[in-house]
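Dear Dr. H.,

I hope your travels went smoothly. While you were away I took the liberty of generating a structure for the chain from your last submission, since the lab meeting agenda had it listed for discussion. I wanted you to have the full record in hand beforehand rather than looking at slides cold. The sequence, exactly as received, is reproduced here:
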Amino acid sequence: MIDLFFLDQSGFAPALPTGYTWGRRGRRVVVPYEAPQGRRVNAVGAFAPYAARGPRLLFETRRKAEGRYDAAAHLAFVRRVAGVAEEPAPPSPRARPCVIALDNYSVHHAAAVTAAVPALADAGVDFFYLPAYSPELNPIEPLWRQVKYQDIPERSHPTDTALQTAVEAALADRARRLAESTNQLPRRA
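The corresponding predicted structure, in token form, is as follows:
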């Protein structure tokens, strides 16, 4: 048995995508574009659809004011997901191997990440890079779409803080529903 996580990033703009809208017959409805102007919220998530205790979703969000998602932030999130010690302490070995599937985002191949790979491997954490341009192989991609189009009821947010609050609430609710979806099965059977 291994712990398998699919890790990916997604961006949320202050005016979220509109799937559809209604309008009067004969009149074209125009949804105005609102420039993000540094108000985007970026999220990183790790989805474990085949976890022993049911699907799990771990995530973090960050606004521009909180800094970029760089190699240091990526390694900190990977260590949190895998449950290994933060630097400078050497990672402690895991009870079960952990594989983290990644796309080919440049941060995933940064020099600091590449340098950390041997220490993570010693702790039982390995990376698996998905083929380029293959989002269909990453099960977190449909999850991002569900959060953007279904889980955030308000489509426009005046500040990046309001957007971050909405994104975090939607992701926390999605994580809770994923956990409950399988936890209830043994009780119902």
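Two observations you may find useful: The mean pLDDT is 88. The first helix runs from residue 71 to 82.

With kind regards,
E. W.
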